[in-house]
Amino acid sequence: MASGARLNGHGAIAATDAIDVCGISKTFRIPQERLSLRQHFLHPLTRTTYETNSVLREVSFSIRKGERFGIVGRNGCGKTTLLKTIAGIYRADHGEVRLRGMLSPFIELGVGFNTELSARDNIMISGALLGLSKSDLLERFDEIIAFAELERFVDQRLKNYSSGMQVRLAYSVAIQVPFDILIVDEVLAVGDAKFQEKCIKTFDDFSAAGKTVVLVSHDPAAIRKHCQRAMLLENGSVVSVGSSNEIVDLYFEREGISTQ
């Protein structure tokens, strides 16, 4: 979780905004060749060369308090890297991210999970990592398990869970954290239709409570249906920000996809 201005944030965030992203860029260095241990000892002076991969390029946008905001774009355009930078998992090379309120990220499935442990143990460990006290977790335990629909499997080790079961558990833990901003990466792409409906219901509840939801989905129809505004990201740059209908139509147009 995170709160307040960070990532070199020195300016003030507007009172109506939950997130203000100001010109962030992120580049990764990728090794062009990896030396084996044997090669390293045979040729100790050989150096690994690197190429740079610019994933985010001067990205700027704002998200209002209580808004459901979608991010669309083809695979590899930088959506997940952007979410991780907003969440503070990655540090931007340039620019700043300002937050107003507490943030709960649901970005990577199973982060903080130990698959050798049961769901019961993982809830206690993951919840503690997210900042919940033991008493909070014990009080909310039954609710977490019920939402995830894992009552019969609570004492099974996670390595015996399907990916859908793990998603349900991870999301159920994430939404127990007191937050003002929830960022979600592809939760609607995993799990059955019933669970997806439950997630959408929580989005509605969060909006009614004035919380902000940022949703990334490979399904533009989900963005159109469940978000008020959206942003199109292409090759690490912002193409446009507007209503979800406008942005999804623009995405289809640029991808040459007919909506008829």
Describe the protein in words.
The longest helix is centred in the C-terminal third of the chain and has 16 residues, at 193-208. This protein has helices at 37-42, 79-87, 119-129, 134-148, 163-174, 193-208, 220-226, 244-255, and strands spanning 5-6, 17-31, 50-64, 68-72, 94-99, 103-106, 181-185, 212-216, 229-234, 237-243. It is built from eight helices and ten strands. α4 (134-148) packs across α5. It has 260 residues and is an alpha/beta fold. β7 (181-185), α6 and β8 (212-216) form a beta-alpha-beta unit. It has a domain at 5-102 and 179-255: 3-Layer(aba) Sandwich (Rossmann fold). 37% of the residues are buried. The chain has a six-stranded mixed β-sheet, sandwiched between helices.
CATH class of one domain: Alpha Beta
Strand content: 25-35%
Query: What is the number of helical segments per DSSP (H or I, 4+ residues)?
Result: 8
Strand order of the largest sheet: 6-7-8-4-9-10
Q: Considering the protein shown, what is the CATH homologous superfamily of one domain?
A: P-loop containing nucleotide triphosphate hydrolases
Order of helices and strands: EEHEEHEEHHHEHEHEEH
- What's the Cα radius of gyration? 20 Å
Bulk shape: globular
Specify the biggest β-sheet.
6 strands, mixed
Structural class: alpha/beta
Return the average pLDDT rounded to an integer: 85
